[in-house]
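Hi support team,

I'm filing this because I wasn't sure whether my run with 2-phosphoglycolic acid finished correctly. The job status page said complete, but I'd like someone to confirm that the output block is well-formed before I use it downstream. Pasting the exact inputs I used:
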Amino acid sequence: MQRTWLIAANWKMNGSAALVDEMTSVLANITNSQLQLLLCPPATLLCRFKTARNFALGGQTLSHEVSGAYTGELSAALLQEAGASYVIVGHSERRTLNAESDELVAAKLARAVAAGLTPILCVGETQMQRQQEKTQQVIARQLDAVYASQPELLAKSVIAYEPIWAIGTGESATPELAQQTHAFIRQHLTQYDAAAAAKVKLLYGGSVNADNCSALFMQTDIDGALVGGASLKP
Ligand code: PGA
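And here is everything the job wrote out:
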């Protein structure tokens, strides 16, 4: 199946107002109807982007609550008001550093969809889990936690496979290895909604850069990338 590409930039806790302007003008030169570009800057920078631009904006996380006394949190509605149409959910850094459980990730994803944001669900194994040949088991658990009880959300999701050992290490998964896991993910998702599984965009993330992206994008089940470090260089 021919799916269009999505290239998403995750700025994490980096960037500046100056980078917003620089990136906006560099990206203005890109015209490709098969390619959707998405920037996920820190939330405080979302409002600095002009409304007229040729890329989408997303948040890096959201609250699973609608509104209320949740100091420091950001709701789906606030992200949307700031210009976001996507949101990253369950990034491994949040799962690890902010102790986000599979259940919380599932609740956040449901909240994003209910609000009309497109969630990018991140899944991926640690180095140790890969060595123990538990990659598929771990990813299946992360997917099941979200879709087993709410399979209707699959059609509204994007999924990013981000092996934790490849994030920020300069050691990307090989295209073959990434393809193998992407094929597993797509296959695993057919039990929830076969049509949605065929269509869902599967992004690869983990040390993607200008040198290795073409080979990754040539793989059948890789529909784009979630890029961290390299996305800060216009
Ligand atoms: P990286 O980060 O490209 O710097 O490895 C990817 C990510 O964490 O989404």
